[in-house]
Design brief:
Layout lengths: L2 E5 L4 H12 L3 E6 L5 E2 L5 H15 L5 E4 L8 H18 L10 E5 L10 H8 L3 H12 L3 H22 L12 E6 L14 H10 L10 H11 L11 E4 L3 H6 L4
Parallel strand pairs: 1-2, 1-4, 2-3, 4-5, 5-6, 6-7
Bound molecules: nicotinamide-adenine-dinucleotide (NAD).
Nicotinamide-adenine-dinucleotide (NAD) binds next to helix 1 and helix 3.
Protein backbone atom coordinates (compact mmCIF):
# COMPACT_ATOMS: atom_id res chain seq x y z
CA UNK A 1 0.00 0.00 0.00
CA UNK A 2 1.01 3.62 -0.55
CA UNK A 3 2.24 5.70 2.37
CA UNK A 4 1.01 9.30 2.39
CA UNK A 5 1.84 12.25 4.63
CA UNK A 6 -0.92 14.79 5.28
CA UNK A 7 -0.31 18.06 7.13
CA UNK A 8 -3.35 19.55 8.84
CA UNK A 9 -4.71 16.00 9.25
CA UNK A 10 -6.57 16.69 12.51
CA UNK A 11 -9.37 18.80 11.02
CA UNK A 12 -11.42 19.77 7.99
CA UNK A 13 -10.03 18.96 4.55
CA UNK A 14 -6.91 17.21 5.90
CA UNK A 15 -8.98 14.98 8.17
CA UNK A 16 -11.41 14.09 5.36
CA UNK A 17 -8.46 13.22 3.12
CA UNK A 18 -6.89 11.02 5.80
CA UNK A 19 -10.16 9.15 6.30
CA UNK A 20 -10.65 8.66 2.55
CA UNK A 21 -7.13 7.32 1.97
CA UNK A 22 -7.37 4.99 4.96
CA UNK A 23 -10.68 3.63 3.67
CA UNK A 24 -8.87 2.89 0.43
CA UNK A 25 -6.20 0.94 2.30
CA UNK A 26 -3.40 3.50 2.27
CA UNK A 27 -1.13 4.14 5.19
CA UNK A 28 -1.40 7.77 6.31
CA UNK A 29 1.02 9.67 8.53
CA UNK A 30 -0.94 12.66 9.82
CA UNK A 31 0.83 15.82 10.90
CA UNK A 32 -0.79 18.53 13.02
CA UNK A 33 -0.53 20.57 16.21
CA UNK A 34 -2.53 17.88 18.02
CA UNK A 35 -4.31 14.55 17.39
CA UNK A 36 -1.80 13.34 14.82
CA UNK A 37 0.89 10.67 14.36
CA UNK A 38 3.41 13.49 14.09
CA UNK A 39 2.84 16.56 16.26
CA UNK A 40 4.69 19.55 14.83
CA UNK A 41 4.19 23.31 14.63
CA UNK A 42 4.68 24.39 11.02
CA UNK A 43 4.89 28.05 11.99
CA UNK A 44 8.42 27.59 13.35
CA UNK A 45 11.74 26.47 11.86
CA UNK A 46 12.12 23.91 14.67
CA UNK A 47 8.68 22.47 13.99
CA UNK A 48 9.35 22.19 10.25
CA UNK A 49 12.62 20.37 10.93
CA UNK A 50 10.97 18.12 13.51
CA UNK A 51 8.27 17.21 10.97
CA UNK A 52 10.80 15.92 8.46
CA UNK A 53 12.82 14.02 11.11
CA UNK A 54 9.70 12.41 12.56
CA UNK A 55 8.26 11.40 9.18
CA UNK A 56 11.60 9.91 8.15
CA UNK A 57 11.60 7.85 11.33
CA UNK A 58 7.94 6.76 11.28
CA UNK A 59 7.98 5.91 7.56
CA UNK A 60 11.32 4.13 7.54
CA UNK A 61 12.64 6.69 5.05
CA UNK A 62 10.27 6.13 2.12
CA UNK A 63 6.92 7.79 1.37
CA UNK A 64 4.77 7.91 -1.77
CA UNK A 65 2.82 11.17 -1.49
CA UNK A 66 2.71 14.48 0.36
CA UNK A 67 -0.47 16.44 0.96
CA UNK A 68 0.34 19.92 2.37
CA UNK A 69 -3.08 20.93 3.68
CA UNK A 70 -2.40 22.71 7.02
CA UNK A 71 -3.40 26.36 6.99
CA UNK A 72 -4.70 29.30 8.98
CA UNK A 73 -7.10 32.08 8.00
CA UNK A 74 -6.55 34.56 10.80
CA UNK A 75 -5.55 38.16 9.94
CA UNK A 76 -2.14 37.84 11.59
CA UNK A 77 1.50 37.03 10.70
CA UNK A 78 1.03 33.40 11.82
CA UNK A 79 -1.02 32.88 8.64
CA UNK A 80 2.06 33.79 6.60
CA UNK A 81 4.25 31.43 8.62
CA UNK A 82 1.94 28.42 8.22
CA UNK A 83 0.29 28.90 4.81
CA UNK A 84 3.38 29.80 2.84
CA UNK A 85 6.62 29.00 4.67
CA UNK A 86 5.24 25.99 6.54
CA UNK A 87 3.74 24.56 3.36
CA UNK A 88 6.86 25.09 1.26
CA UNK A 89 9.07 23.64 4.01
CA UNK A 90 6.83 20.57 4.28
CA UNK A 91 6.91 19.91 0.55
CA UNK A 92 10.62 20.60 0.09
CA UNK A 93 11.68 18.89 3.31
CA UNK A 94 9.76 15.70 2.50
CA UNK A 95 10.75 15.57 -1.19
CA UNK A 96 13.87 13.44 -0.60
CA UNK A 97 11.68 10.78 1.05
CA UNK A 98 9.68 10.49 -2.19
CA UNK A 99 12.76 9.29 -4.08
CA UNK A 100 12.16 5.63 -3.29
CA UNK A 101 8.54 5.61 -4.50
CA UNK A 102 7.40 4.11 -7.80
CA UNK A 103 4.72 6.80 -8.10
CA UNK A 104 5.79 9.86 -6.08
CA UNK A 105 3.29 12.74 -5.89
CA UNK A 106 2.84 16.08 -4.10
CA UNK A 107 -0.02 18.52 -3.75
CA UNK A 108 -0.67 21.73 -1.80
CA UNK A 109 -3.93 23.46 -0.89
CA UNK A 110 -4.19 27.01 -2.20
CA UNK A 111 -7.58 28.79 -2.36
CA UNK A 112 -9.96 30.63 -4.60
CA UNK A 113 -9.06 33.52 -2.27
CA UNK A 114 -6.03 33.89 -4.54
CA UNK A 115 -8.47 35.46 -7.02
CA UNK A 116 -9.45 38.16 -4.52
CA UNK A 117 -7.55 41.35 -3.61
CA UNK A 118 -4.05 40.70 -2.27
CA UNK A 119 -1.11 42.83 -1.13
CA UNK A 120 1.54 43.14 -3.85
CA UNK A 121 4.30 43.90 -1.36
CA UNK A 122 3.57 40.84 0.76
CA UNK A 123 3.27 38.61 -2.33
CA UNK A 124 6.68 39.85 -3.55
CA UNK A 125 8.33 39.14 -0.18
CA UNK A 126 6.82 35.65 -0.10
CA UNK A 127 7.94 34.98 -3.65
CA UNK A 128 11.47 36.03 -2.60
CA UNK A 129 11.27 33.63 0.35
CA UNK A 130 12.06 36.45 2.82
CA UNK A 131 10.26 35.23 5.94
CA UNK A 132 11.32 37.96 8.42
CA UNK A 133 10.31 40.77 6.03
CA UNK A 134 7.07 38.99 5.09
CA UNK A 135 6.17 38.62 8.77
CA UNK A 136 6.85 42.35 9.30
CA UNK A 137 4.64 43.27 6.35
CA UNK A 138 1.85 41.02 7.67
CA UNK A 139 2.15 42.72 11.06
CA UNK A 140 1.54 46.08 9.37
CA UNK A 141 -1.47 44.73 7.44
CA UNK A 142 -2.85 43.10 10.60
CA UNK A 143 -3.09 46.49 12.31
CA UNK A 144 -5.14 48.00 9.49
CA UNK A 145 -8.97 47.82 9.30
CA UNK A 146 -10.58 44.37 9.34
CA UNK A 147 -11.09 44.04 5.58
CA UNK A 148 -7.33 44.42 5.11
CA UNK A 149 -6.82 41.32 7.25
CA UNK A 150 -8.06 39.17 4.38
CA UNK A 151 -5.19 40.54 2.30
CA UNK A 152 -2.77 38.45 4.37
CA UNK A 153 -4.61 35.18 3.66
CA UNK A 154 -5.14 35.98 -0.03
CA UNK A 155 -1.49 36.97 -0.44
CA UNK A 156 -0.25 33.67 1.05
CA UNK A 157 -2.40 31.75 -1.42
CA UNK A 158 -1.33 33.84 -4.45
CA UNK A 159 2.31 33.23 -3.53
CA UNK A 160 1.70 29.52 -2.93
CA UNK A 161 -0.03 29.04 -6.30
CA UNK A 162 2.83 30.92 -7.97
CA UNK A 163 5.39 28.77 -6.14
CA UNK A 164 3.76 25.62 -7.58
CA UNK A 165 3.77 27.12 -11.08
CA UNK A 166 7.47 27.94 -10.81
CA UNK A 167 8.61 24.64 -9.30
CA UNK A 168 6.48 22.00 -11.00
CA UNK A 169 8.34 21.83 -14.31
CA UNK A 170 11.85 21.91 -12.83
CA UNK A 171 14.41 19.11 -12.56
CA UNK A 172 13.56 18.59 -8.86
CA UNK A 173 9.91 17.83 -9.58
CA UNK A 174 8.83 16.98 -13.14
CA UNK A 175 12.42 16.00 -13.92
CA UNK A 176 12.36 13.57 -11.00
CA UNK A 177 9.03 12.12 -12.11
CA UNK A 178 7.00 13.87 -9.39
CA UNK A 179 3.77 15.65 -10.36
CA UNK A 180 3.41 18.79 -8.17
CA UNK A 181 0.03 20.52 -8.20
CA UNK A 182 -2.33 22.69 -6.15
CA UNK A 183 -6.03 22.63 -5.51
CA UNK A 184 -7.92 25.88 -4.94
CA UNK A 185 -11.17 25.25 -3.06
CA UNK A 186 -14.13 27.61 -2.88
CA UNK A 187 -16.04 27.79 0.41
CA UNK A 188 -15.78 24.46 2.24
CA UNK A 189 -17.71 23.68 5.44
CA UNK A 190 -14.89 23.13 7.98
CA UNK A 191 -13.97 24.59 11.38
CA UNK A 192 -12.05 27.31 9.46
CA UNK A 193 -15.25 28.71 7.94
CA UNK A 194 -17.77 27.67 10.63
CA UNK A 195 -18.25 31.22 11.96
CA UNK A 196 -18.80 32.61 8.46
CA UNK A 197 -21.50 30.14 7.41
CA UNK A 198 -23.47 29.68 10.62
CA UNK A 199 -26.76 31.12 9.42
CA UNK A 200 -28.61 31.12 6.09
CA UNK A 201 -28.11 34.89 5.94
CA UNK A 202 -24.33 34.56 6.42
CA UNK A 203 -24.14 31.85 3.77
CA UNK A 204 -26.08 34.02 1.29
CA UNK A 205 -23.91 37.09 1.81
CA UNK A 206 -20.68 35.04 1.55
CA UNK A 207 -21.86 33.46 -1.70
CA UNK A 208 -22.39 36.95 -3.13
CA UNK A 209 -18.63 37.54 -2.78
CA UNK A 210 -17.65 33.95 -3.63
CA UNK A 211 -20.22 32.81 -6.19
CA UNK A 212 -20.62 29.01 -6.29
CA UNK A 213 -23.36 28.43 -8.87
CA UNK A 214 -22.69 24.67 -8.99
CA UNK A 215 -24.02 23.13 -5.75
CA UNK A 216 -22.93 25.93 -3.39
CA UNK A 217 -20.82 25.42 -0.27
CA UNK A 218 -19.05 22.05 -0.33
CA UNK A 219 -18.19 19.40 2.26
CA UNK A 220 -14.47 18.63 2.79
CA UNK A 221 -14.78 15.17 1.20
CA UNK A 222 -15.31 16.94 -2.15
CA UNK A 223 -11.79 18.39 -1.94
CA UNK A 224 -10.38 15.17 -0.47
CA UNK A 225 -11.44 13.15 -3.54
CA UNK A 226 -9.64 15.56 -5.88
CA UNK A 227 -6.51 15.62 -3.72
CA UNK A 228 -6.49 11.82 -3.62
CA UNK A 229 -6.67 11.57 -7.40
CA UNK A 230 -3.97 14.18 -8.01
CA UNK A 231 -1.65 12.21 -5.71
CA UNK A 232 -2.62 8.78 -7.06
CA UNK A 233 -0.57 6.64 -9.45
CA UNK A 234 -3.27 7.36 -12.06
CA UNK A 235 -2.06 10.94 -12.36
CA UNK A 236 0.86 10.70 -14.74
CA UNK A 237 0.64 14.05 -16.61
CA UNK A 238 -1.31 16.64 -14.64
CA UNK A 239 1.52 18.93 -13.58
CA UNK A 240 1.87 22.46 -12.22
CA UNK A 241 -1.87 23.11 -12.25
CA UNK A 242 -4.00 25.09 -9.83
CA UNK A 243 -7.19 23.05 -9.93
CA UNK A 244 -10.19 25.07 -8.77
CA UNK A 245 -12.77 23.01 -6.93
CA UNK A 246 -15.09 25.89 -6.30
CA UNK A 247 -18.55 25.29 -7.76
CA UNK A 248 -17.71 27.72 -10.57
CA UNK A 249 -16.27 30.73 -8.68
CA UNK A 250 -13.22 30.89 -10.92
CA UNK A 251 -15.34 30.77 -14.08
CA UNK A 252 -17.49 33.63 -12.75
CA UNK A 253 -14.71 35.81 -11.33
CA UNK A 254 -12.04 35.35 -14.02
CA UNK A 255 -14.35 34.89 -16.97
CA UNK A 256 -12.34 34.73 -20.17
CA UNK A 257 -8.89 34.45 -18.53
CA UNK A 258 -7.55 31.01 -19.26
P1 LIG B 1 -9.21 23.57 9.46
O1 LIG B 1 -8.99 24.72 10.37
O2 LIG B 1 -10.37 22.68 9.67
O3 LIG B 1 -7.89 22.65 9.43
C1 LIG B 1 -6.61 23.19 9.34
C2 LIG B 1 -5.65 22.32 10.12
O4 LIG B 1 -4.34 22.89 10.02
C3 LIG B 1 -5.99 22.23 11.61
O5 LIG B 1 -6.08 20.90 12.05
C4 LIG B 1 -4.85 22.98 12.27
O6 LIG B 1 -4.51 22.48 13.57
C5 LIG B 1 -3.72 22.77 11.27
N1 LIG B 1 -2.70 23.78 11.50
C6 LIG B 1 -2.88 25.12 11.66
N2 LIG B 1 -1.73 25.70 12.01
C7 LIG B 1 -0.79 24.72 12.09
C8 LIG B 1 0.58 24.71 12.44
N3 LIG B 1 1.21 25.83 12.83
N4 LIG B 1 1.24 23.54 12.40
C9 LIG B 1 0.60 22.38 12.06
N5 LIG B 1 -0.72 22.34 11.73
C10 LIG B 1 -1.39 23.49 11.76
O7 LIG B 1 -9.25 24.22 8.02
P2 LIG B 1 -9.60 23.61 6.56
O8 LIG B 1 -10.74 24.38 6.06
O9 LIG B 1 -9.62 22.15 6.57
O10 LIG B 1 -8.32 24.14 5.76
C11 LIG B 1 -7.36 23.27 5.17
C12 LIG B 1 -6.67 24.03 4.05
O11 LIG B 1 -7.63 24.38 3.07
C13 LIG B 1 -6.02 25.34 4.48
O12 LIG B 1 -4.78 25.49 3.81
C14 LIG B 1 -7.00 26.39 4.01
O13 LIG B 1 -6.39 27.64 3.78
C15 LIG B 1 -7.50 25.75 2.75
N6 LIG B 1 -8.79 26.25 2.24
C16 LIG B 1 -9.91 26.14 3.01
C17 LIG B 1 -11.12 26.62 2.51
C18 LIG B 1 -12.40 26.55 3.28
O14 LIG B 1 -13.39 27.16 2.85
N7 LIG B 1 -12.45 25.83 4.41
C19 LIG B 1 -11.15 27.20 1.24
C20 LIG B 1 -9.99 27.29 0.49
C21 LIG B 1 -8.81 26.80 1.01
Amino acid sequence: PRTSVITGAASGIGKATKELLEQRGERVIGVDLHDAEVVADLSTAEGRGALVDAVREVSGGRIDAVYAVAGLAIPAPATVAVNFFGTVASIEGLRPLLAGSEAPRAVVVSSMAALMASDDELVALLTDGDEPAAMDRAQVLAKEPSTTGQLIYASTKVALSRWVRRKAATAEWAGAGIPLNAVAPGVIATPMTADLIDTEQERESLLKVVPMPLNGIAEPIVVARLLAWLNSAENTHLCGQIVYVDGGSDAVLRGDSV
